[in-house]
Design brief:
The structure holds 2 protein chains of 2 kinds. Chain A has one domain (about 1-220): 3-Layer(aba) Sandwich (Rossmann fold). Chain A is built from 7 helices and 13 strands. By secondary structure, chain A is α/β, with parallel strands linked by helices. Chain B folds into 2 domains: about 5-180, HUPs (Rossmann fold); about 200-324, TPP-binding domain (Rossmann fold), CATH 3.40.50.1220. Chain B is built from 9 helices and 18 strands. Chain B has helices at about 20-30, 45-55, 75-85, 95-110, 220-230, 240-245, 275, 295-300, 310-324, and strands at about 5-10, 10, 15, 35-40, 60-65, 90-95, 115-120, 120, 130-135, 140-145, 150-155, 170-175, 185-195, 205-210, 235, 265-270, 285-290, 305. In chain B, strands 7-11-6-1-4-5-12 form a 7-stranded parallel sheet, with helices on both faces. In chain B, strands 15-14-16-17-18 form a 5-stranded parallel sheet. Classes of the chains: A alpha/beta, B alpha/beta. At the A-B interface, helix 3, helix 4, strand 7, strand 8 and strand 9 of A face helix 3, helix 4, strand 7, strand 9 and strand 10 of B. Strand 12 (about 225-230) of chain A pairs antiparallel with strand 10 of chain B. The complex binds flavin-adenine dinucleotide and adenosine monophosphate. The site of adenosine monophosphate (AMP) has 20 residues of chain A, from helix 1, strand 4, helix 3, strand 6 and helix 4.
C-alpha cells in the first residue's frame, strides 16, 4: 500500500509557553521550539507499520516554508521513504481549505491508496483531512484509533468517539483518515537516524508544478481570516497560594479538610 | 442577513443532547428574525421522540427518517445534507466527534466557509461574522472573521453558549424522509465497542489526584500515587498520560475518557484543555499545581499553586500525613 502522510510544523506546546505579541498580530515566535504536530507523528508511525505489514511506501508531505523541511526530515528518519515540500509564496496565509487544495494537487500527482492526516494541529481546527477527502471525493474518517487492512481494498477502522467508546466501520480504499493520538507508540528518533537522512534530496513543488490555480489558495482565497491574537481578561480565576512550599501545603491541608478532600 | 439558518440536532438514546437548546439560542442570535430550522436524522421511534423534543426549541424541524440513519454515519449524513440544504445556508453543529467527522467535508460540498469550535461570536455585520476561537489548547484566543456570503458550517463548543428556553408555542415537524432515500456510502458502520472497564472506577471517587503531561515521565508517577495514598484518593489523568501508556485508559478524565464528579480534584501538571475539563462535572473544588502561572487551568480552578509538581507534591503529601 502506498501511503501519503500530511504533516505540519508547529510550536511545541510541551516545550513553550505560548504568548501573544504586544500588538496582538501574532504569538511571540522568536524563541519558540518547533516540532512536528503531535497527531501527525502518530499518523507517520501508523503508516510505517502498515507499509511494513503490506509492503509499499510512505511519503511525508508538508505545506510550508523552507523551515518546515526539518519536520519532513525527522519523519523520514522514522522510516518514511520519501518527502515532499509543498512550498510557494502563493501558499502563504492559506486557510484550511487552501491547505487542502494544495494537498489534493499533491495526492493527484502520485498513486496513493491511503492518505493520513492528524486529527488536529496547533489551531485546533481539525479540518484539513475532511476537506481533502471531500475535494478528492474519497471516503473519510476522523479520530481514527485503529486500522486493520482487509482483503479487497478495504480497511476495518475504529474511530474514537465520546466517552472513549470506539466506533467500528469498514471503509473502501482509497480513503483519507485522520489519526487520533494513542493509536500506537511512535518510535524514537535518535540523532543517528536524523543524520542518516540529512543529505536526502527532498523535492519541492510550487503552484505551477502542482498545476494549482493560485486564486484558490493563499490569503486572498480565505473565507475565514484570523484578525488578532489575545488573552481573554482573567475572570475570578484561582486564588494563587503564596509562601514557602510548606506554608502553601499547610494552607492547602486546611482547605482540603474543609472541602472533604481529606478522608 | 437573510440566509436560512439550520441547526443539526445531536441525539442519543432517543433524547436530544444538552447542546440542542444552545444551538437554538445561538442560531437566533446569529440571524435575528431569520427562520431557524432544526435537522433531525435517525430512525424509528427514536427519531420521532427526538423531533417531539426539538419542536420545543425550534419553530420548524426537518425530520429525516431512514433505516440507514439509525446510527449517525457522517459519510451518509454529508451527502444527505448537501442534497437538502439550500445554497448559502448557515448550518450550526455542536463541536463533537460527529461534527468533526462531518463538518469539514460538508463545507467543501456546500462550497461554504468552515468555522470550527467557536466559543463566542458577535452579531454579524453584513456578511461577516466575528467569532472567538482558541488555539494551542486554550493558551491563547483569536478573533476570526468568517465570510458568510457563500454560507457556512459552524461548530460551537458545548457549554459556551447560553441554552434557549423552550418556545412559547411549539414548532412543527416537516417530514423530509423522502429526501433520505437511496443514500450510499463507501464507509459502513459496524458496531460501537464500549470503553474498557479498569481496575478502579474513577467516576465514583470523591477525591481525585489527576496527573498530566507535566508529570514528565512514568517514573515520576509514584509522586502522585503517594499523595493520593496520603489523601485516601485515587489517581486519574489527562490524555497524554494514557497515550504514553503510563496509565490505563480507564483512568483518563475528559470528553474521550471518563466523566467524573468528585468533591475535590487536584490537577497536577495539567494545562486545562476543554476536552479535559469537559469530563469534570458537579463543580468540584479544583486545586491546580502547575509551573506555568498562565496555564488555562488557573482560570477554572478555585485554588492554584505555581510550582514544579515533582517538588510540591511530596511536601503536600507530608503535610497531609502530619495533619492526620
Ligand atoms: C477529539 C479529542 C478528544 C480529546 N479528549 C481528551 C480527554 O478525554 N482528556 C484529556 O485530558 N485530553 C483530551 N484531549 C487532548 C487535549 O486536547 C489536550 O491535548 C490534553 O488534555 C492535554 O493534556 P495535559 O494538560 O496533560 O498536557 P499539556 O497541555 O501538555 O499540559 C501540561 C501542563 O503541565 C505543566 N507542567 C509541565 N511540567 C511541569 C512540572 N514539572 N510541574 C508542574 N507543571 C508542569 C505545563 O505548564 C502545562 O500546563 C482530546 C483531544 C482531542 C482532539
Ligand atoms: N501546512 C500543512 N501541511 C501538511 N499537512 C497539514 C498542514 N496543515 C494541516 N495539515 C494536516 O491536517 C491535519 C489537521 O490540521 P488542521 O486541520 O489544521 O487542524 C494535520 O494534523 C496535518 O495532517
Amino acid at each position: 500500500m502506498n501511503i501519503l502522510v500530511c504533516v505540519k510544523r508547529v510550536p511545541d506546546t510541551a516545550e513553550n509557553e505560548i504568548e501573544v505579541r504586544p500588538d496582538g498580530t501574532d504569538i511571540r515566535r522568536e524563541d519558540l521550539v518547533y516540532s512536528v504536530n503531535e497527531w501527525d507523528n502518530y499518523a507517520v508511525e501508523e503508516a510505517i507499520q502498515i507499509a511494513e505489514r503490506t509492503g509499499g511506501t510512505v511519503t511525508v508531505a508538508t505545506v510550508g516554508d523552507a523551515d518546515a523541511e526539518e519536520v519532513v526530515r525527522r519523519e523520514m528518519a522514522m522510516g518514511a521513504q520519501q518527502g515532499l515540500m509543498l512550498t510557494d509564496p502563493a501558499f502563504e496565509g492559506s486557510d484550511g481549505r487552501g491547505i487542502a487544495e494544495i494537498l489534493k494537487a499533491a495526492v493527484q500527482r502520485g498513486r496513493y491508496d491511503l492518505v493520513l492526516c492528524g486529527a488536529q494541529a496547533d489551531d485546533g481546527a481539525g479540518q484539513v483531512g475532511g476537506m481533502l477527502a471531500a475535494l478528492l471525493d474519497w471516503p473519510y474518517a476522523s479520530l481514527v484509533n485503529r486500522i486493520e487492512v482487509l482483503e479487497g481494498q478495504r480497511l476495518r477502522i475504529g474511530r474514537e468517539i465520546e466517552g472513549g467508546n470506539q466506533e467500528m466501520s469498514e471503509i473502501e480504499l482509497p480513503c483519507v483518515l485522520s489519526i487520533q493520538t494513542g493509536i500506537n507508540e511512535p518510535r524514537y528518533v535518535g540523532i543517528r537516524g536524523i543524520r542518516k537522512v540529512a543529505s536526502v534530496e527532498i523535492p519541492a513543488l510550487g503552484a505551477s508544478e502542482l498545476g494549482l490555480d493560485p486564486s484558490r489558495v493563499g490569503r486572498a482565497a480565505c473565507r475565514v481570516r484570523k484578525l488578532d491574537y489575545f488573552v481573554p481578561p482573567a475572570g475570578a480565576g484561582a486564588e494563587i497560594l503564596q509562601g514557602s512550599p510548606e506554608e502553601i501545603a499547610a494552607r492547602l491541608v486546611d482547605l482540603l479538610k474543609a472541602k472533604g478532600g481529606l478522608k | 442577513m437573510t440566509a436560512q439558518v439550520f441547526a443539526f440536532i445531536p441525539h442519543a438514546n432517543s433524547r436530544i443532547d444538552d447542546a440542542a437548546p444552545e444551538l437554538a439560542a445561538a442560531a437566533r442570535q446569529l440571524a435575528p428574525g431569520a427562520p431557524v430550522t432544526a435537522l433531525v436524522a435517525g430512525d424509528g421511534a427514536g427519531v420521532e421522540a427526538v423531533c417531539a423534543e426539538a419542536v420545543r426549541f425550534f419553530p420548524e424541524v426537518w425530520k429525516f427518517a431512514a433505516a440507514e440513519l439509525a446510527y449517525p454515519n457522517a459519510e451518509l449524513l454529508r451527502p444527505l445534507l448537501s442534497r437538502v440544504l439550500p445554497r448559502g445556508a448557515i448550518v450550526l453543529f455542536s463541536h463533537n466527534t460527529l461534527a468533526m467527522d462531518l463538518g469539514p467535508g460538508l463545507a467543501v460540498k456546500l462550497d461554504a466557509a468552515y468555522l470550527p469550535d467557536i466559543v463566542a461570536f458577535e452579531a454579524p455585520e453584513g456578511q461577516v461574522l466575528r467569532a472567538v476561537r482558541q488555539e494551542f489548547n486554550g493558551q491563547v484566543s483569536t478573533h476570526v472573521a468568517c465570510d458568510l456570503s457563500g454560507g457556512a458550517v459552524i461548530t460551537l463548543r458545548a457549554g459556551c453558549f447560553a441554552a434557549s428556553e423552550p418556545l412559547a408555542a411549539a414548532g412543527r415537524v416537516v417530514d423530509r424522509s423522502a429526501d433520505a432515500q437511496g443514500l450510499a456510502a463507501r464507509r459502513r458502520f459496524l458496531e460501537v465497542v464500549p470503553a474498557e472497564v479498569g481496575d478502579v472506577d474513577i467516576t465514583k471517587e470523591e477525591v481525585l489526584v489527576s496527573v498530566g503531561r507535566g508529570i514528565g515521565d512514568k517514573e515520576n508517577l509514584p509522586v502522585a500515587e503517594d499523595l493520593a495514598e496520603a489523601l485516601g484518593a485515587v489517581v486519574s489523568c489527562s490524555r497524554p498520560v494514557v497515550d504514553a501508556k503510563w496509565l490505563d485508559k480507564s483512568r483518563q478524565v475528559g470528553t474521550s475518557g471518563k466523566t467524573v464528579k468528585p468533591k475535590v480534584y487536584l490537577a497536577l501538571g495539567i494545562s486545562g484543555s476543554f476536552q479535559h475539563m469537559g469530563g469534570i462535572k458537579g463543580n468540584p473544588f479544583i486545586v491546580a499545581v502547575n509551573k506555568n502561572p498562565k496555564a488555562p487551568i488557573f482560570q477554572v480552578a478555585q485554588v492554584g499553586v505555581v510550582a514544579d509538581v515533582l517538588e510540591f507534591a511530596p511536601v503536600l503529601a507530608e503535610a497531609v500525613r502530619k495533619a492526620r
